Amino acid sequence: MSAESRFRDACRVPFSNGTEERSWQSRWCDLCVHDHGMHTDSGPGCDVYGGVLLSDFEDWPECWLPEPDDGRSTLPSRLVCQQFEPCSEDDCEGDPYEVTRSEIAVEVREYWEAAR
Considering 35, 74, 76, 77, which has the largest number of Cβ atoms within 10 A of its Cβ? Predict the structure, then answer.
């Protein structure tokens, strides 16, 4: 199967259920500056995620890249958001994970660029 086919297959359905969606959101959106308004109930959240919700998951954001199926990926990490920026405002703690979201985003972007 070609890289293009693998990429299209991975982009077909972002989440199989609401639990998977919320798990991914807590790992990415809850830590991102673009969703800060939602963290503090002080304003709107992320335009990308909001747009996906409004489209009922019909419009795939260009900034969401699927992780390669290399056997290392486990839920909720199937998608990587290329717009992720750690949130350190107010009571937000930035990116608490050992491997930062930013590092993962770079790795996945480079994988798909090399595969094409």
Answer: 35
52-86: b or e for each residue (b if 16 or more CB lie within 10 Å)?
A: beeeeeeeebeebbbbbeeeebeebbbbbbebbbb
Output the six-digit token pair for 62: 């260009």
- Burial label for 5, CB within 10 Å (0-12, 13-18, 19+), is exposed
- Residues 22 and 54: their CA atoms lie apart, in Å, by 16
Residue given tokens 């994988």 in the structure block: 111
Q: Which residues contact 103 (CB under 8 A, 6 or more apart)?
A: none
CA distance 67 to 113: 12
**Residue-wise pLDDT tens digits, 61-93:** 888 888 776 655 555 457 888 888 888 877 777
- The answer to whether 20 and 76 are in contact (CB under 8 A) is yes
Contact present, 68 and 62 (Cβ < 8 Å): no
Q: Report d(CA 40, CA 81) in Å as an integer.
A: 21
Q: pTM of this prediction? A: 0.72
